[in-house]
Write a structure and sequence with these properties.
It is a single chain. This protein is of the alpha/beta class. The relative contact order is 0.12. Helix 4 crosses helix 5. Strand 1, helix 1 (12-22) and strand 2 (26-31) form a beta-alpha-beta unit. It has a seven-stranded parallel sheet with strand order 3-2-1-4-5-6-7. Strands 9-8-10-11-12 form a five-stranded parallel sheet, with helices on both faces. It folds into two domains: 2-194 and 354-365, Rossmann fold, CATH 3.40.50; 199-351, Glycogen Phosphorylase B (Rossmann fold). It is globular. It has 16 helices and twelve strands.
């Protein structure tokens, strides 16, 4: 098959492309590298700023590429409105062009979009998310702007248009699957994130109990409140101050992917998202490298995966008290870490191996709707 993957979040499309190529398919990945993260791609389309000069250059670059985006068996866009850095009304023309000139077009439910925001913010079918917890409303400027932007601007129309006209929706988290499955039951397919394990790294891992537990926190000041990284970092520093001889906090901010991975490898525990039911690419990559993950790992997620044995993620509730309790117990009982590392590696092997996931995508793309 000839496959075009358009847009990037967290290295999903590139990892998928590598696996599809191993299975004998022709794949092209076009993206902006997910901005400063600098994920690899085949064609880089990067908009440096919203200035007139940079916008004109970006549009020209896209127009030069458009004729090459024809004749594919499958096109998948990473999101209904975030696959290119253009306003929705301009994106619609490009999306409709893709529909006309390719056999099938699919969309990823991999980030905020109208359907997810409507389900989590308005319907409130989850116990918690980045808008609320059982104890509190998460009322900040970022959330107010996000809810208004997706629910009441022209982004909504683009999302609805894409969802109604595409051939299918690939949901990668339990939360996104829940948001789409009732309204679009025939189109929605849950597919885990693809992870390419590093067998050499795994072979050389130490599974001994660490004398000093190293917590890793990847900061991004534009998204810390969204993911709860601000709470995780704050609590981890409290633990570090209380037990300076037992743990250490390593924090990075806005590093390119390759440098980020180098820093992560030096640690024992990744502090990830607290408002999610499901581990995303960051957490899964860490588990595949032998880190223990503190973050989202609710039972609904395991049930969706069909996992009845392994529970490698230290699941925290989105409140400081629970995060503190879980981190303190890990520091006081580091003998738990070796088995959690083994379980994490096995969990990723069972459910997220990139070849297995690529085969699920092929099944999804070949379904008759």
């Amino acid at each position: 098959m000839r496959i075009l993957l358009l847009g990037e979040f967290s290295n999903v499309h590139w990892t998928l492309a590598c696996a599809l190529r191993k299975l004998g398919h022709e794949v092209m990945v076009v993206s902006d590298g997910n901005s400063w993260r600098e994920y690899p791609c085949d064609v880089l389309l990067y908009r440096r700023s919203s200035s007139l000069v940079h916008t004109i250059k970006y549009v020209i670059d896209i127009l030069c590429q458009l004729p090459k985006w024809r004749g594919y068996d499958v096109v998948q866009i990473i999101s209904p409105v975030l696959f290119l850095k253009l306003k929705p009304r301009r994106l619609k023309k490009i999306y409709d062009y893709l529909l006309r000139h390719n056999k099938r077009v699919y969309m990823g439910a991999m980030s905020d979009d109208y359907q997810y925001i409507y389900d989590s913010y308005v319907r409130r079918r989850l116990r918690y998310c980045d808008f609320y917890t059982p104890q509190r409303e998460i009322d900040n400027e970022r959330n107010r702007q996000t809810a208004y932007g997706w629910l009441y601007t022209y982004s909504k129309d683009m999302c609805v248009h894409v969802t109604e006209t595409c051939n299918g929706v690939a949901a990668v988290l339990y939360e996104y699957y829940v948001a789409y499955k009732d309204d679009f039951p025939q189109k929605t397919f849950y597919i885990p994130f693809p992870i390419e394990p590093d067998s050499t790294l795994i072979e050389n891992l130490s599974f001994s109990t660490p004398c000093l537990v190293r917590f890793f926190v990847g900061m991004d000041n534009r998204r810390d409140e969204l993911k709860g990284t601000d709470i995780l970092y704050k609590v981890a520093k409290r633990i570090e101050n209380k037990y300076p001889d037992k743990c250490e906090v390593i924090a990075t901010e806005s590093l390119p992917y390759s440098e980020y991975i180098k820093q992560m490898k030096q640690c024992d525990v990744l502090l990830d998202q607290i408002y999610s039911y499901t581990p995303a690419m960051n957490a899964l990559q860490a588990m595949s490298m032998g880190l223990v993950v503190v973050g989202g790992g609710e039972e609904e997620h395991y049930e969706l995966m069909g996992e009845k044995e392994l529970r490698p993620i230290i699941n925290v509730q989105p409140e400081e008290e629970d995060v503190y309790r879980q981190l303190e117990q890990l520091v006081l009982h580091p003998e738990r870490i070796p088995q959690l590392k083994r379980d994490g590696i096995e969990y990723v092997r069972r459910h997220h191996d990139s070849i297995k996931v690529a085969q699920q995508y092929l099944e999804f793309w070949n379904r008759k709707i």
